[in-house]
Design a protein that fits this description.
five-stranded mixed beta sheet, alpha/beta, about 45% helix, 15 helices, three-stranded antiparallel beta sheet, globular, about 15% strand
């Protein structure tokens, strides 16, 4: 009897309750992070957590963005899920293969990024000079930084050729600087809707698309977490995954309502709807061209571990 009691106590206390709060940063902003705003607005994580038997899950949306900051948040334990581009994710995956074992939950969006400039002498990336500065959200690890490295390796066999021209700046700040003709930046490698806002100025033109370098549609934002969180909180993990899927469906079904969530970020609803109607912009949980990033980053030593397949990078559902 005593032995049975000990076993019962072990079972009771050995079962860990799932977290009652989950922390998710809202990201760097723009269309690529729109599903997060839909998830917050419609309380989709809470909805699916309740269905899974967690009725009072609190979702705390943290107002931080930028790949380097997001990575630090997940590593430090101040966030449970983060959303960033494949390069930042791969850097984190590589650093944690024997520790936190961070993997992808799902892709969230696919869309090109645009290298915009108003400098007369810049007809293509190759024309950049020592006096030029290209704004990116993070040096070396952001999508634009890696895309420029890919291009430089293909054309010059020197992946670091354009690194010295990049400066870190948020998308909104870079838009202001570029349109104002500030000496702070000569070009901005940016995402929708910031790129489209810049292009409304007749002085601004696009000289490179990320999809051109990668050879097709490519994942722009994806969600990741630690293996420990997934194992200890399978219901919350599942709720977040289902919330991403539903958010993507809601955007496709009602672009105007989705666009309204970005209207307080300095963009009009018609402006956002126009961007959402672009066939190159997709909201999907299916990863695209992520392995191309991984192969390249491994080839230049940016990551030490080479994933054999997508199953090395993403959790199975």
């Amino acid at each position: 009897m005593h032995r049975l009691a000990v076993i019962a106590l072990f079972v009771i206390f050995g079962l860990r309750a799932e977290v009652n709060e989950v922390r998710i940063p809202t990201g760097a902003g723009g269309v690529g992070f729109l599903p997060l705003l839909v998830m917050e607005k419609h309380q989709l994580v809470e909805k699916y957590a309740k269905e899974a038997g967690i009725p009072n899950l609190k979702v705390r949306w943290i107002n931080i963005g930028g790949p380097a900051v997001m990575n630090d948040a997940l590593l430090s334990g101040s966030a449970d899920f983060i959303t960033a581009g494949p390069p930042a994710f791969l850097t984190l995956w590589d650093r944690t293969t024997t520790s936190a074992k961070i993997k992808g939950v799902a892709a969230m969006s696919s869309m090109p990024m645009y290298l915009n400039t108003r400098a007369d002498h810049l007809k293509k990336l190759d024309d950049v000079t020592a006096q030029d500065k290209i704004a990116v959200t993070a040096i070396k690890v952001s999508i634009p930084s890696i895309v420029m490295q890919m291009y430089a390796k293909q054309k010059y066999n020197d992946p670091t050729r354009f690194d010295k021209f990049t400066v870190t700046m948020t998308h909104p700040d870079a838009v202001i600087a570029l349109l104002a003709g500030s000496s702070a930046v000569d070009a901005h490698f940016t995402s929708p809707p910031f790129a489209q806002r810049e292009k409304k100025d007749p002085r601004v033109r696009t000289i490179m698309l990320s999809d051109d370098v990668l050879g097709g549609s490519t994942t722009f934002t994806m969600v990741s977490t630690t293996t420990k969180f997934r194992e200890q909180n399978p219901k919350v993990y599942g709720a977040v995954f289902k919330a991403i899927e539903e958010a993507n469906r809601l955007i496709a079904a009602d672009k105007k309502s989705a666009a309204e969530l970005l209207s307080d970020k300095g963009f009009s609803v018609p402006e956002i709807v126009e961007v959402l109607n672009d066939p190159h912009i997709k909201f999907t949980t299916t990863p695209e061209n992520v392995m191309k990033y991984a192969d390249f980053m491994y080839s230049i030593g940016s990551i030490k571990n080479r994933p054999a397949s997508m199953s090395d990078l993403f959790f199975s559902h």
